[in-house]
Design a protein that fits this description.
Blueprint (H helix, E strand, L loop, with lengths): L5 E4 L4 E5 L2 E11 L2 E6 L5 H9 L5 H10 L5 E4 L3 E11 L2 E10 L8 E7 L7 H23 L2
Antiparallel strand pairs: 1-3, 2-3, 2-8, 3-4, 4-5, 6-7, 7-8
């Protein structure tokens, strides 16, 4: 089995949206095995020490450790991703673009859709930048699902 590697990561904060509101902020990470949402945490000495210990560890170990730092983190195995697209949500006063990812966590369950908005420190041409970033992510996820999502 191939080692897990990070394909794409949004290093600035990513907003996880629920019902047109910002539910959480964190990082979105795409690997050759899964799509992960890691909620923002307040770093402390213990976390910093553990991260230093993992400096030479495999990427899978580092991501698994990061995943345990917040109970609201979630991951979607590539094989469960059914649809990737770009949507629009309204956050007063303007509509905003977002990346949407639909998956079937279990065969008998209804499809669940997650929405993400990418934040950028420089909000110049906000709509253009958001839309471009959404399409880049959608394309990357589709490519990774086709390549690794068996």
């Amino acid at each position: 089995m191939e080692l897990e590697k990070v394909i794409k990561e949004h290093r600035r904060w990513t907003r996880w949206l629920e019902s047109s509101t910002v539910a959480r902020e964190g990082n979105l990470v795409l690997t050759n095995r899964r799509l992960m949402y890691l909620n923002r945490i307040a770093p402390n000495e213990e976390v910093s020490a553990n991260i230093k210990k993992l400096a030479d560890a495999a990427m899978e170990q580092v991501l698994d450790y990061a995943f345990t730092l917040n109970k609201k983190n979630f991951q979607i195995p590539l094989s469960e991703i059914k649809r990737i697209g770009v949507g629009v949500f309204t956050l007063y006063p303007y509509p905003r673009f977002c990346l949407t990812v639909s998956c079937n966590p279990r065969k008998n369950e209804k499809t669940k859709t997650y929405a993400f908005q990418f934040r950028d420190a420089a909000n110049k041409n906000m709509f253009k930048l958001q839309l471009t970033e959404d399409f880049r992510w959608a394309k990357a996820i589709k490519q990774v699902v086709l390549t690794y999502g068996k």
